[in-house]
Amino acid sequence: MAKILVTGSAGFIGSHLTELLLKKGFNVIGLDNINDYYDVNLKFGRLEKAGIQQDSIKYNELTTSVINTNYKFIKLNLEDRENLSRLFEKEKFDVVVNLAAQAGVRYSLENPMAYIDSNIIGFTNILEACRHNSIKHLVYASSSSVYGLNKRMPFSTNDNVDHPISLYAASKKSNELMAHTYSYLYNLPTTGLRFFTVYGPWGRPDMALFIFTKAILGGKPIQVYNHGNMQRDFTYIDDIVLGIMKVIENPPKGKQTAEKTSESIAPYKIYNIGNSAPVKLMDFIKAIEENLKITAQKEMLPLQPGDVERTYADVSGLMEDLNYKPETDIKIGVQKFIEWYKSFYNINSK
Fold first, then answer.
1. Cβ pair 246, 324 in contact under 8 A
2. How far is Cα 244 from Cα 195, in angstroms, rounded to an integer?
3. 168 catalytic residue (yes or no)
4. Largest CB tally within 10 Å, which of 3, 201, 261, 337?
């Protein structure tokens, strides 16, 4: 069975993907620097779920899961080029799934250098390691944020994305350009995935569902930006990781002639992964209220810098190439998140 490196494996998407890969019998090495961008206890909780104990983790040392012999974990920064190169040379990966990145649109306004270090320098190190170690397929996280000021709906991978409105988005667009260069120059198959507002159990505390749930249960008001006039193409975590699995198993081959922006003569591909069904922010909040059986106190605020009013994924590429489309209904996804949230934080159901 193939050996797969999952970077960002203590993260939201990375931990779910690791779990799925292990269930399918793959040999997995997870990598994460476990930074404190948000509560590290949540990250350690995800790792412990896969059998990696917090007290066994040391920087740049492989930790083996006691539950699954197919899983090892290493604490490492992508910026650590020397040790990253050693890891690749030693482990002989078949596939790399790069989900490690400095996340967050608004945080990029406060700490721009974190995005350069992780998303640009770190990603360059990943590309170089893949190039020199005969990696068969590099799959990496991009973002719906790259669409920026684009007004065409739904967002298509054939649209121009040259007008980002946050450094986070710019870094993700840069990753796509860098990946194409390596695909073309070194025949490295790369696939970029533009994720659309991922949510679900074990989600990130800086995302709306987590923030709203915590505030409502704590009797505090929630901040509703753009006075509630926003829509998001929320995508449930299980749909995301199933989509990633489809992509892993189907590396791009390139084309003799590239007729679409998303195509290339190089072995390079970009896909949107979204539910393709935008949800109004106020309907999203209503779904949370109904599950919690609490009416939220709402503080209506203007649109925040770096935010867009609407996201909407055109997933025709996924459907045409891989016969896949996310389908989880928002009410079901919200319910599953809240069930997990109450369990993880030991909150008695009302």
1. yes
2. 10
3. yes
4. 337
